[in-house]
Amino acid sequence: MADVTSALQTERSAAKPAHKDGTVLRWLAAYTLSVLGDSIYFMALGWAANQIAGPAEVGLIVASGAVPRALLMLGGGVIADRLGPRRVVIGSDTVRFLVIAAAAAAIALTPGHVWLLITVALIFGAVDALFMPAVGALPPRISTPDQLVRIQGMRALAVRGGNTMGPPLAGFAMGISGPEAAFALASSLFGISLLLLLTVHMKPLQGTGDAEDAPRGTSARHDLVEGLVFIRRHKLIGPLVLAAALSELGFAGPLNIGLVFLTTERNWGAGGMGWIVAGFGIGAAASALLLTVLGRLPKAGYFLISTTLVTSACVAAFPAAPALGFTVALAALAGLAGGIAGGLAQALIQAATDHAYLGRVTAVTSLTALGLAPLTYPAFGALVSFGGVATAFAAGGILSAIGMIVCIASPTIRKAELA
């Protein structure tokens, strides 16, 4: 045991900081370009749909990609673990590049058809279900556990940057030559991302040889069940995944559709909503920068619990703020605390996950945010109708805080550290 501990300490001390590690930086650049390409693709898809279809069909086209993404996400995690995340991320990025390039050509050469856009959206959503667990499972395979917090901060910065730069770039491209130009730009970004991913190589697993080439005698269904059992039985991952899911469900309604009701009730208009969203975004960006600079936080478990509770309190207090400026300040604090909590949660989960289960665990955490959170929107809307905006926001804050009761009840989470 002493030899193993000594070896781990030697590996960590010899490892480069993530922001100086060429492999990590290439992964980050590829991930950033992928997020940017996603943002451009979704805007181009909606614009192309609006040119050839009515409002109902536009909604159907844009939403159709979410169905295979949610349904196939867990299967994507199984495939990432069976074949290895690097192979899956390269293969899926190749398909994304080819599909969007073909879509650009088809839109440029034909008048456009609803069935074509739905087909593109369905294929892209299905491939996303493979890409997301695989790309999310790579950080622990290209760096060491002590760098995971910094990597999560860098990743959050990439997401913020990609989502901020994507719409204006898409608009610029469509202003030049319509949706086909935006699709072509997105395809080019996916292609560059693919080239960068080809240069990213994973660290070998100690004592296992090439685990990706090891034959599996089990079915995909068995592997999926095995992954879910691993999550449920793990003393840190199980409670933390449950807590994160409850928090995500609590935050989703207030922060996505709740702001519309709040600003309407206060007569702050679209401009007021924009300021609140901007405040949250600034806080989230600050949290990402903080995690990137610091690299780690002491007593990560306690820090996770406290920052999530701060976020819950801020969300619940939104309707009580006496003026728009106070609400914007609360949103900035919620973005800062929530960003720190999210980064710590992801880093703790990845550090504790056996590499053989990384794809499946990443798929479960991704599905929570993408698949389950939107299900709270009808319930939140009903709460607003029957109890008012303040009641609905309070319910969201309480639900997210309940997730932290799960963490407080777990000694493993309370004492969790990222060495």
Automatic annotation (TrEMBL):
Write the record's keywords in alphabetical order, separated by commas. Cell membrane, Membrane, Transmembrane, Transmembrane helix
> Where does this one sit in the cell?
Cell membrane
Q: What is the membrane topology noted in the UniProt record heading this document?
A: Multi-pass membrane protein
Q: Where is the Major facilitator superfamily (MFS) profile domain?
A: 23-415
Q: Where primarily located?
A: membrane
PROSITE patterns documented for this protein: MFS
The family database entries (Pfam families) matched by this protein are listed as:
MFS_1 (PF07690)
Q: Which Gene3D superfamilies match?
A: MFS general substrate transporter like domains (1.20.1250.20)
Q: Does the keyword Ion transport apply?
A: no
The entry's cellular-component GO terms read: plasma membrane
Q: What is this protein called?
A: MFS transporter
Species of the source: Streptomyces lunaelactis
Its lineage opens with: Bacteria, Bacillati, Actinomycetota, Actinomycetes, Kitasatosporales
